[in-house]
TrEMBL record:
Residues the record lists as binding substrate: 127-128, 266, 275, 284
Subunit relationships: Homodimer.
Transmembrane stretches, start-end: none
Catalytic reaction equation(s): 4-(phosphooxy)-L-threonine + NAD(+) = 3-amino-2-oxopropyl phosphate + CO2 + NADH
Gene name linked to the record: pdxA
Biological pathway: Cofactor biosynthesis; pyridoxine 5'-phosphate biosynthesis; pyridoxine 5'-phosphate from D-erythrose 4-phosphate: step 4/5
Gene Ontology molecular-function annotations: 4-hydroxythreonine-4-phosphate dehydrogenase activity; cobalt ion binding; magnesium ion binding; NAD binding; zinc ion binding
Protein name (Swiss-Prot/TrEMBL): 4-hydroxythreonine-4-phosphate dehydrogenase
Chain positions recorded as a divalent metal cation binding sites: 158, 203, 258
Function, as annotated: Catalyzes the NAD(P)-dependent oxidation of 4-(phosphooxy)-L-threonine (HTP) into 2-amino-3-oxo-4-(phosphooxy)butyric acid which spontaneously decarboxylates to form 3-amino-2-oxopropyl phosphate (AHAP).
EC number: 1.1.1.262
Cofactor(s) needed: Zn(2+); Mg(2+); Co(2+)
Length: 323
């Protein structure tokens, strides 16, 4: 199997720590990966600089393979420096190019610090939108958060709540659900995916008494999906669809805005959740948490979500036939 490319993420965050932790956990069993980062940073595990992805598998059992890309400024834990922003973006771009060229099986991204990148001129709200530009397939990229207990997909992602709600249309919801259903079939091996589409208002609008969006926007989206043969139901009251009794009834929850999706999955499994970008030409996963600047450099960072992201990337690559 080709290795996975792991990007550096925010150098002042916990990326280096959890990368080292993931290597320690996976060195004996794999899947093999290499890190695109500054090899001189002083990792807590053995490191070996490599010239290209093809060297990673042989190095992996004994040391963390690093594709050396020097940083402009020495990272200080907890203190992002915009001088390093170009290297952060370049690592993402290089990983994607390697995946598109077939030299790696997929891309796993460490968390970025969006405010620092924006300060340096990065014009995308986050990873998802940038990956859609450089590795898209002609459809809008879709963000899925997946864990053993729940998969959620937000229709709108990194935007203010008022703007997100104003953007909702039946076709936007249905389009997100179509991409999700296809990924569940082709990459997750679910022959007949079941989708639960969340309502927007309390009690899914209570027959219009708490707002008509569920009648005029969400219900028509569900009707479109069902007419296409997709097993979708909704609008489902969002206050009850994530309970232990409700979750076994669907394979993914289509949620209408960022926090409606991310609050339940992070509450259920913050350590094991994985961010998967659907609708790309490559496999891409990442941990479901941020840069954790407050604990960077303390040795308290938990690599569990990154380990889960690496394992899932390998599984998705195998399902695609890119491994």
């Amino acid at each position: 199997m080709r290795p996975l490319a792991l990007t550096m993420g925010e150098p002042a965050g916990i990326g280096a720590e959890i990368s080292a932790g993931a290597w320690s956990a996976l060195r004996a069993t794999g899947p093999a990966f290499f890190l695109i980062d500054d090899a001189t940073r002083g990792f807590a595990v053995p490191v070996r600089a490599i010239a290209g992805p093809e060297e990673a598998a042989a190095v992996f059992p004994d040391a963390l393979p690093v594709l050396h890309r020097p940083l402009a400024a020495k990272p200080v834990a907890g203190q992002p420096d915009a001088a390093n922003a170009p290297a952060v973006v370049a690592a993402i771009t290089e990983a994607v190019e390697l995946a598109k060229a077939g030299r790696v099986a997929g891309v796993v991204t460490n968390p970025i610090h969006k405010a620092t990148l924006t300060e340096a001129g990065f014009r995308h709200p986050g990873h998802t939108e940038y990956l859609g530009e450089i590795a898209g397939t002609g459809v809008p990229p879709v963000m899925m958060l997946a864990s053993a207990e729940l998969r959620v997909v937000p229709v709108t992602v990194h935007e203010a709540l008022a703007k997100a709600i104003a953007r909702l249309t039946p076709e936007l919801i249905a389009g997100t659900a179509r991409i999700t259903a296809r990924a569940l079939r082709e990459e997750f091996g679910i022959a007949a995916p079941r989708l639960a589409v969340a309502g927007l208002n309390p009690h899914a609008g209570e027959a219009g008494t708490m707002g008509r969006e569920d009648i005029e926007i969400v219900a028509p989206a569900v009707a479109l999906l069902r007419a296409e043969g997709i097993d979708a139901r909704g609008p489902v009251p969002p206050d009850s669809m994530f309970t232990a009794l409700a979750r076994p009834g669907y394979d993914a929850a289509i949620c209408l805005y960022h926090d409606q999706a991310l609050i339940p999955i992070k509450t259920l499994d913050m350590a094991g959740g994985v961010n998967v970008t659907l609708g790309l030409s490559i496999v891409r996963t990442s941990p479901d948490h941020g840069t954790a600047l407050d604990i960077a450099g303390t040795g308290r960072a938990d690599p569990s979500s990154l380990i889960a992201a690496i394992r899932l990337a390998a599984e998705l690559a195998a399902a695609r036939g890119t491994a």
